Structures are given as structure tokens and as C-alpha cells.
Amino acid sequence: xxxxxxxxxxxxxxxxxxxxxxxLPRFLPRFYVYLTALILLTGLLATSLNLVLGFGGMYQFHHxxxxxxxxxSLALMLTKSGLPVWTGFIAAxxxxxxxxxxxxxICVRLSKLYFGMLQISLGSLVWAIVFRWYSFTGGxxxxxxxxxxxxxxVSHGAYYFTLIxxxxxxxxxxxxxxxxxxxxxxxxxxxxxxxxxxxxxxxRHQLAGEVIAGFFAGIAGTLFVTVEASVFPDLMFWTLSLExxxxxxxxxxxxxxxxxxxxxxxxxxxTFVGIYTEYWTLILGIVLMLLIFFMPDGVLGMIQKxxxxxxxxxxxxxx
Amino acid sequence: MHxxxxxxxxxxLLQQILVGLSRTTILFIVASGxxxxxxxxxxxxxxxxxxxxxxxxxxxxxxxxxxxxxxxWVAMVAAPIGVALISLVMERGLFCHLYDREHLxxxxxxxxxxxxxxxxxxxxxxxxxxxxxxxxxxxxxxxxFGLPLPRYNLFLLVIGPLVALGLWILTQKxxxxxxxxxxxxxxxxxxxxxxxxxxxFSAVFVIGCFLAGLGxxxxxxxxxxxxxxxxxxxxEAFLIVIVGGLGNIWGxxxxxxxxxxxxxxxxxxxxxxxxxFPYAVVVTILMxxxxxxxxxxx
Amino acid sequence: MKRAFGMFxxxxxxxxxxVAPLVAADPIKVGIVxxxxxxxxxxxxxxxxxxxxxxxxxxxxxxxxxRKIEFxxxxxxxxxxxxxxxAKELIMREKVNLLMGTINSAEALAISxxxxxxxxxxxxxxxxxDAITGEKGHRYVFSMNENTSMAGKAAAVALSKKPYTKxxxxxxxxxxxHAIADGVWxxxxxxxxxxxxxxxxxxxxxxxxxxxxxxxxxxxxxDAVIIATGGKNCVPFLKAAETTGFNKRVPxxxxxxxxxxxxQPLGMDAPEGVLGTSNYFFYYPDSPENKEFVKEFxxxxxxxxxxxxxxxxxxxxxIAKAYEKAGTIDTExxxxxxxxxxxxxxxxxxxxxxYDHQVxxxxxxxxxxxxxxxxFLIASDIITISGEDVMPTIEEIKKxxxx
Lengths: 319, 298, 403
Hints:
Shape of chain A: globular
Oligomer: heterotrimer
Strand content of chain A: under 5%
Largest interface: B-C, 49 and 50 residues
Radius of gyration of chain C: 23 Å
Strand order of the largest sheet of chain C: 2-1-3-4-5
Largest sheet of chain A: 2 strands, antiparallel
Helix content of chain C: 40-55%
Number of strands of chain C: 15
Helix content of chain A: over 70%
Number of helices of chain A: 15
Order of helices and strands of chain C: HEHEHEHEEHEHEHEHHEHEHHHEEEEEHH
Radius of gyration of chain A: 20 Å
Number of helices of chain C: 15
CATH topology of the largest domain in chain C: Rossmann fold
């Protein structure tokens, strides 16, 4: 099996990248370490969206809700409950998953654009409640200065925590995509009618996908709280959902690591172009247009396509 | 500090409804344009909100440039046409190459336009608030049972049904409307009988965007013309279209009415969570009628 | 003659020797995080421009402690996450000495919390949440503008002198609206116990047509109405008030109704007789300091200064004077110097209250009126409510901080 050889190569790659990220704070200034953490957690969020978007073909228009719910759950548990700190970190993604289940239950009966719009309405409902419920969520002012466990507030604690959790989450999602479930999921994306015909319960699979995506978005939300110690209603506003969609598209939504790359591009673009001009959204808009015109598979999708042609690798196994 | 509007008399209720309906007019005009583009071309056009905003800003600029009493009326005609021209360039230059792409791609493509238009508006018109005067004929209010009803709102109440009627004639009675409806169902078929589908699509896109510009022009005298107008309208317009039924003009009208009403009722019932009501209504409707209230005509 | 020339040369050499190392000293870096996109930018651009005007003047005189003041801006687009990461970028990468901004309360509170842990001073310009220097106040945060409780108190002081007893409240259904309304009403009840609240009307954020709300309020027949709406909503509200004749039927008060950013876009379409409060008018006070400031601002930017310009200008003045007094660029000494500091401004002397780091700004209440020479309405019959009178008491601050 040639696979064995590839696997060894892969292990080296993964170890190398892992080592690089572990040593990052040694030689990078503090701001870049923070930025890396931000990219990692945003990338995790985009990857979780891509589970249902790229691999499931579902129009997940309001993914930010699960992110926001995760972040708010943790923030509220840390500030308002006397529960042990780490229960918050475990409970928050679970709450996001439950919200994913509820929203999924209502939405999966519909498809494509209707699915997306219903999800936007449901998500906006959650947003509106958070935005208005001053006594509980802090309303539009949000909650700031969230007390974090000591280990996270010491130097680079938040970074290492983000790195480890992101790595584990990515590994788990990668396994899910390449599991029998993941393959069925992709088959549903490519041809839902045929899958239905051969006895696959399409909606149940989509619902499961929604729960999984919600769970990992919730993890990304807790990481946001870890890094920024703040929550606010913007975290679940529909414009953020569109931004995450763009990240997936930018990086390549038929690839596993594309959204990660897309998130990195977006965060870096807005941080560094933002230093020189207020008009970075104009630049982003033009970049996006060019991309859709000339690189509809995204950056990573394009690279892999070009590389894939050279190696003669068939398209279905996408990294 | 939350209270209820305690004294609701019949005249004030009537007056509320009339004023609410005139706001519905704007929503309807914008949503119907969106619905048209979505129904025929299958483009979820997020830039529709940008066209609405540009329509309002153009109205301001034209009215200021022409000046006097005529300014408003010239602007009312020129602004939507200006918007239509921009959309024509967009459609011929870019969109017509992308019709076979997935919805999601088109959605993001139009979103990139909102980013570009947003910044262009900022560059061209700056950050100050802009306001257009109501034309003298419609200034002030009529008194209905002792309560003021702005004349301009009455004007809007007349415009709304006129636009609806015009659209109905356009889609049902004219050749272009019939072709468009047929093309929406089966592009290849229409193409096969020797009709240039691309041009029909172009016309529909331009008409849709014209309506966004018209909405912006009509709303200009009642509102603060600022950046960010695009954001506030586009989500509402999309929800209206979805609730009413894609591509259905009467659906857009019904959706706009429902939105206008729930807004008012929500504030009466539970002011603290009034912003929740429109979303809750959409969710409820889509749960029972997953494809909107009225049938997609296309 | 020859000797005088020699003296002159000596002096020149001396000056060059003195100044050269000073000029070479590192500049004082100020980072501004604010929203420069969307409706709020009509306010924030004035803060930035006036700050620039003041800083240019300071630098032209040789700067502070021989250092130039440099500043750099970041557009947060009214998004808290963007503001927060921009603030981190300015602190960690640009290594700014202090931060300024923002108009978004949530953003200001988030950055304030960051500044607390990073020990970087934050001078808030324009965010009106009273939590910034109240409940969430700390050593490193200062407010350069009025807040909701100050505006509320000022309005209450002025309204208590009017003969109205039956009130109605209407406003934007979000933090700012409720905070203003609460501020006015709580203080008004204290000052004039016989006032009565007939009812309230709240509209959603982003509401654009106010006619139905106005008629609902008219039909309740109150003596006066308190309108708690802000920002871009002021313009359409006043427009609807003019169209429906609201101002002629019921007197109403609206914070910022008299501000230039509200009245200028409306031109002659604004209603007369509306009560409003603001920290600043370019035509009032009619003092030489204000006239000088308006002239300079007009010359530099081709428009009269709005209220944000006052905030930007005094922020620069406070920064320069505090470093001067501290004698060093050490942050802790800078903060010590800033506490209780007084500067001259276009509206007179202004002091930072040491306890809560709030600038004690006077509030001007006026009535909108057409005036010859202006193609928009201006505030007239202006009364000044002094800074001391509008500030929440230190006991109130302590109470809100749970002390």
C-alpha cells in the first residue's frame, strides 16, 4: 500500500508543524502570538462551519450563533455561577451542541436557501434575546473582564490552551470527515435524492452534522473567551456568519484545511491592511470578486487541484 | 422601565395602521425587486441593500444639485435610473458570466459588492448625515380624528399599490415577463426556441435593482441618509421574500404587510423583546409553510 | 553690532545643542481605536481632527518634554472584536504610551478592561456609558466626555424649573436610550417629587419611521415628553416631529437635539422649540477661546467643529499637560498627574475629578430656533449647567462599584 509511505511523510509534517507552533512564543513578539491564537480559534470556527457547508452541502448561513452561544455560556458560567471553572469549558460546547440540535431539528426539514434563511431567523432570535436581556447577558454592552483560571492568564497560557484544543478538535473533525459517517455525509451532499433512495436517512445525518458543527463552534467560542476575556452580541450577529462563510470560500470549501487558511488570510488582511487604510473592506471585496471569478475552489483548493493533476491523485481524497 | 402604550383609541389605532402601511410600502418595493431577481435569476442579491442606499444618496445629491421645488421630483426619477445603470454594468460585466454557479457562490459574490459599495459610498458622500426635504406639496400633516397623518405617508400609500400593479402587469401581461417566467423554470427550453435568455435576464436584473433604487429614493425624505442603510434593510427584505414565496410579487406584498404589522403589535405586546417578533414570525411561518406563504409563481 | 551678532551665533549654537537631543527623543505615541465607518463616523471624525489640530500645535511649540506627540488611528467599524484586537495591536506592536477612543460602549468597556491588565491609560472619547468611569471604573481609564447619567442629571435640573408635571418617556430600546431616560427620570423625581409618569413608548433600534410613536404620545396628552433617542435616529425623529407638528402640540426634550450633527443635515426642516442638551456649540459660549478654536478648526478642515471636536481637543490638552506635570513619560506618574488636572478649553476651565477620572464638563441646554445668518437651526436661550451639578456624586459611584 502506498498509503503507508504517505502516512510516514504526513507524520513528519504534522510533527514539524506542531513543533513550530509550540516554539512560536519563544521567538515571536507577544502580539504575533496573540494573533496566531486568534487565527487558530477563528480557523477552528471556520473548519466547524465547513463540516456542514463544504462536506455536507448545507446552507449554514448563521453559524456564528453556535460560536456566540459557546462564548456566552462560558462567560456566564464564569461570572454568574459558583461552579468549578473547568465545568464551564466542558458545558459550553455541549450547550452549543444542544442549540445546534434544536435549530437543526427545525431547519433540516428545509433545503438550500430556505434552510439558510430559516436558520438566519432562528439565529437572529437568539441574538435578539442576548442583545436585549440586560439583567442576564449584559445586553448590548456585553460582559468584559471575565475571570479566567490562573493557568490561562499567565504568559502564553491562553495561546498554548488554544493551540492544544484547536489541534485536538481539528484531529477529531478530520477523523469524522474520513469516517463512514463523513463519507455518507459527502454522498448526501453530492446527491441527496439517490442517498434517500438507497435507504440513507438524509435528515438524521444532517441533524447529526449540525450537532457536531455546533459543538466545535462552541469550542471555538470558549477559546475566544480564553483569548479575549470578553463577550458581546456581535459574536452571534449575522454579519459575522457571512465572514466565516467567506473564510471557507477563500481557503477552499472542498478541502479540510482550506477554512483554516481562509481564516488566516482574513485575520491577517484586516489586521495589517487595517493599519494602512480604513478601506480594507474595499480591498477584501475586490479580492473576493477576483477569487470567485478565477479561483472558485479557493486558495487551497486551487493549489491541490494543480498539485493533484501533477501527482495523478484522484480528486476525492482531499486533505 | 418598561411600559405599555396604555391608551389606544380607535382613531389612533387607525392612524397607526395607516402610517405602518406606508412604511410597508418601502419594504414591499425593495423586497419585490429582490424577489424578482431571486425568482428569475436565482441570485440571492445581498447588494440589493447597497442599491437601496445608493438610491437614497443619489436622491440627496440630485435634489441638492437641481435645487428648488423640482429638485425632489427630478431626483425621484434620476436616482432609480442611476441605480439601474450601475446594475446594468454589473450584470453585463460580471453577473452574466456566473449564472451557472452555485447559489452560495453568487451570494458571496454579491456580498463582495456590498463591501465595495459600502466603502465607495463612504468615499463619495463622506460620513455626515444627509437629509432630503419633503417636497412642499407633501409637507405637513392631515388631521384624522385630531391626530396628524403626514401627507408624505399618504403619497407612499398611493405609490405602493401602483408599483405592485405595474409589476403584476409586467410579469403577467408583457412578453418579457412571460419569457422571464418561462426562463426561470427552464432556461434551456426558452433558449432552444431561439429567445436570447441572457438579455431577458439582464432586463430582469436591472428592473429589480431599479426597484431597490426607487425604495431608497422614496425613503430618503423620511430618513437619515447614512452609511449602514444597506445593512438594516437587506435582512428584512430577504426575510419578507422568503416568507412570501420566492419570486412572487404578491408574496412580497403579503410578507411586507406581515412584517409591518408584527413590528407594531410586538411593540404593543412586549416592548422589551419587540425586536424578536419579526424573526419569530418568520420561524413560525416557515415551520408550517416551508416554501413561504404563497406559491412561487416561477 | 559685531558683538550682537556673536551673541546671536552663540545663542543659535546653544539652542541647536539644547534642542537636538530633545528632538531626537522618542515621541509620545497615542493610539486611537474608533469607528470611522458607518453613521458614528460623523461624530468620531471630529474627535480625530480636533485632536490632530491640538497635537500639531503642541508639536509646533516643541512638543512635550522635548518629545513630539505622534498618533495613529485604527478603524474598528463599530465591531467590538475588531476594536479589541486593534487595541492589542497598538499596545503590543506599536507600543503606544496610551490609548484613546471609542464611540461604541461595549468596545470602550472591553478595551478599558484590557488597559487595566496591560496598565496602559485609556482616555475614552465619546462612548456615553456611565459604567466606564462608574461601575467599571479603574485606575487606568478616564472619560473625556459626558455620559448618560450626566446628561440625565443636566436635563433633570433644567426640566425641574419648567412647569410640567405629567411626563411621557419614549426612546430607543437599547442600553443608551434606557440609561438616558432612567437618568432624567430618577433625578427629576428627586428634584421635583410631584412629577408623574403617564407612560412609556420604546421603539426598536434602527427604527426609521417615528410617526406612529409620536402620535401615540400625542394622544396620551402629557405636559411634556422625554425622548431618549440618540445618534443617527435624532435626524429622522426631528423630521417626523416637524411633519406631525409634535413640537407645537407637546414640548419635548431630547438629549443631543441641539447638536450640530443633528441640526445641520436637517437644514430648515428641523422643528423649532425642541429642548436639547449638548456639551458644545461652535457659537456658544461666545468667548475669545471658543472663537479662536472655531476659527482654527474651520481653517484646517473647512467645517465648523461639532461636539466631538471639543472632546478631541481637550484630550490632547490633558495629555500634554499631564506629561508636562509628571516630568517623565512614566505611566503611573502620568496618571497621578492627570487626576485632578485642570486645562483651559473652548468652554472654559475643565477639571478631571480624581476619584472617578471623569472630566467635569458643563452641559448647555438650549431650544432649537431659526436664526438669521444660518441655513440650519441653532440652539438659543442657552442655560449652562455646571460640571459639578451634572456629575453623579462620589457616593453614587462608590455604591455602583459595590463599595
